Structure formats: structure tokens, C-alpha cells
């Protein structure tokens, strides 16, 4: 078990920092409303310009679109920052997937460090990251394999 834990930890440490691959607007949104809400925003509006509601406008159509996508609290936080601006929301699916995969491996590693087996950790985190257990095993095993080959 310790051998697998070390390989996974070293593999995580060797991953490139995917945050720098994300457009700055997406990184900024993630800081404001979190990863999950930013993902929802991209899924709903990615690849388009979006006119952010003015904070003084209570019942605009665009405000309702945001509330439907990310909820009232996240909408309020986003409007505080981008009130009245036209914002391009890029799709950046592949970059977000790489970031999610990296965070998944980090979460699996933390679970292993806290006493779960690799299988238990993958099962638990797959639900949290909304991926299949099969994909989670493949991710963890790929990183272990890359590390063991010295890549």
C-alpha cells in the first residue's frame, strides 16, 4: 500500500499546473464562485458573450439565466464583480477536464493518506467529481504508470 501511495503522490507532484492553461476570466470566476459553479456556467454559456446584469437591476432576464445555472448566492457574487459588463465565457472544456483530473488525483491521495484503500478512495471521489469509477481508476493508474516509467 505504501508503494502505491508514494507513486500516486509523486505523480500528482509531477503534474503540470493546469491552472495556467485556463483563460484568466475563468480563473477569476473560479475564485469568485468556485470550480463547480464555474463549470456550470461554462456548460450553459460557454463560447458566447454574456451581458452581466447590473447589480441595480433586480429582475433582468440575464440575472434569471445565471440563477438557473449557478444559484442565487453565486449569481450575487458574480454580479458584484462583473456588474453591467459584457463578458466572454470561453468553453475551455479540455483545460477544465485536466484540472478536474488533477484535483481528483489529489483528493484520492488525501483519502489514501487518511487511511482509505486506493479502491475506496477512487469510489468515494468519483462520486464527488461526477466521474465514473472506471474513469477514476484509469486516471489514477495512468498517473502511477507514467511515474513508474520515469516520465
Give a written overview of the molecule.
With 151 residues, the chain is mostly helical. It folds into 2 domains: 2-17 and 95-148, no CATH class; 23-91, no CATH class. Helices cover 69% and strands 5% of the residues. It has helices at residues 2-14, 24-45, 61-70, 72-82, 93-113, 118-128, 133-148; strands spanning 48-51, 86-89. The protein has a two-stranded antiparallel sheet. Helix 1 (2-14) runs antiparallel to helix 5. The longest helix is centred in the N-terminal third of the chain and has 22 residues, at 24-45. The chain is elongated and about 50 Å long. The two termini are 22 Å apart.
Characteristics:
151 residues, mainly alpha, two-stranded antiparallel ribbon, 5% strand, elongated
Topology diagram in text:
Elements: H1 2-14, H2 24-45, E1 48-51, H3 61-70, H4 72-82, E2 86-89, H5 93-113, H6 118-128, H7 133-148
Antiparallel strand pairs: 1-2
Helix pairs in contact: 1-5, 1-7, 2-4, 3-4, 5-6, 6-7
Amino acid at each position: 500500500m505504501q508503494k502505491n501511495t508514494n507513486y500516486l503522490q509523486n505523480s500528482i507532484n509531477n503534474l503540470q499546473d493546469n491552472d495556467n492553461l485556463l483563460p484568466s476570466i475563468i480563473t477569476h470566476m473560479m475564485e469568485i464562485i468556485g470550480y463547480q459553479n464555474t463549470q456550470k456556467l461554462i456548460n450553459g454559456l460557454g463560447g458566447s458573450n454574456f451581458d452581466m446584469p447590473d447589480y441595480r437591476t433586480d429582475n433582468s432576464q440575464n440575472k434569471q439565466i445565471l440563477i438557473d445555472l449557478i444559484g442565487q448566492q453565486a449569481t450575487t457574487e458574480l454580479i458584484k464583480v462583473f456588474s453591467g459588463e459584457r463578458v466572454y465565457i470561453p468553453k475551455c472544456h479540455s483545460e477544465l477536464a485536466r484540472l478536474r483530473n488533477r484535483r481528483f488525483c489529489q483528493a484520492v491521495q488525501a483519502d489514501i493518506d487518511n487511511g482509505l484503500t486506493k479502491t475506496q478512495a477512487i469510489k468515494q471521489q468519483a462520486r464527488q467529481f461526477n466521474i465514473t469509477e472506471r474513469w477514476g481508476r484509469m486516471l489514477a493508474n495512468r498517473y502511477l504508470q507514467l511515474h513508474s516509467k520515469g516520465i
